[in-house]
Amino acid sequence: MRIGLIVIALSICLLVRESFEAPAKSPLKISISVSSSSVPTIDTAKTLSLAKSLSSHSWEWGTTIQASLEVNNPELSVFSTNAFPNGKVPIVSGTGQKIDALAYAKQKIQTNGPALADGAGAIGDPASLGVGAILLGSATSTKNTIYKSAAQRQLNTVLAAPKFYNGALSQRANVAELWADNMFMTPPFLAYSAVAGNNVTLLRQAISQCALYRQVLQANTTSTWKGLWTHIVGQESQTLGIWATGNGWAALGMVRVLATVKNWQTSSSWSSEQGQLIQYILEIINGAKAVPVDPQTGFYRNYIVGGSNSQNNNTVTWFGDGAGTAALTAAALRLAVIRPSLAPQMISFAKPLLTSLAKNTNNDGLLSPTVNPLDWYTTTPFTSGSPEGQAFISMAGAAWRDCVNAGVCSSTSRKS
Questions:
Q1: How far is the C-alpha of 232 from the C-alpha of 293, rounded, in Å?
Q2: Average pLDDT in the chain
Q3: What dihedral angle (degrees, nearest 10) is formed by the CA atoms of 399, 133, 93, 28?
Q4: For the whole model, what pTM was predicted?
Q5: CATH for the stretch 19-54+70-80+187-405
Q6: Confidence of residue 41 (pLDDT cuts 50, 70, 90)
Q7: Which is more confident, 393 or 3?
Q8: 324, 307, 329, 325: which is closest to 316 by C-alpha?
Q9: What is the rounded CA–CA span in Å between residue 360 and residue 202?
Q10: Domain residue limits, the chain
Q11: How far is CA 295 from CA 213, 291, 318, 350, 363, in A?
């Protein structure tokens, strides 16, 4: 792992049926207008294409698969109100090759080992490919049974991870260590596996993991930015900085778990658990809202508060990071749709960030600057393209489109 739009320029027609069989299509081009005088655009065909071509690690492949589902096949995403037809994981026709995300996933998933990809010492990262593997395993072709078995082995591997003192599942294979990044990897996979196996206990475990990670990683402070998370706690790679991308990973992971709970018929009435997850996500968003962005880029700084190892270290003025900013933007917009009563504050948070993301994305779809995904300590902005940053900005585009289509972002007076 890393040692680092309100005009819609198209209409979307989704064909919903029991068995999803859509021809391969290009990612949707999403146009954002935040005022009558400013209509920045983000071409998600380009941003997503770069995410695919730049990705070379397990977590990057998994994040790109998720981004492709949200951009190209939102009916298959957990954010769809019909995410689980008849209470089950969607049945994909054939081998899934006609679904962009799954065609990509098939190129990356290993089907003959305990994990879906080489985690390079991380036990959580390969789990990011788990949703793709489960969807492939649901396909009607008998050739795809290997993916179902591979997803089950990945689940077993994750559940056997070293545990932190409070029972939180480790991100690392050889030591109990908690990374904010893992919130996007493990809990959403546990939740989706729960639906696939009709396992309520496993879904509750996914929710519990969010709480256990928060217990350890949420910064202990009474400052106005309280609610933000530190990056890593553990004996091997500990870094207590308030890392923007880490908070983005955590918020996006928890909103995916929340969507799974809300959209699965079996758990849709779990109001207490949904409220708990909403609280956790809001804590991060509200913490970020209390901190000014970098005036040059309009992004949250790589370390939102302080420095890489301490929230009190202000010796470095960190650069604006598009990756973490895009992740936080996507999470806020998803929450706006899941809980429309929160839409006014979520949209007021997300709109300026969407504008900044558009302004800092070039004609090739490259978002810059970002943090170096393999070196979050460096003070040099990364400008050659972050795979996860490209996936995050694609997710932000899809989240804005879905928010507008739901009538939430176009009218914030709607209540849940």
A1: 23
A2: 90
A3: 20
A4: 0.91
A5: 1.50.10.10
A6: low
A7: 393
A8: 307
A9: 41
A10: 19-54+70-80+187-405
A11: 32, 12, 12, 16, 22
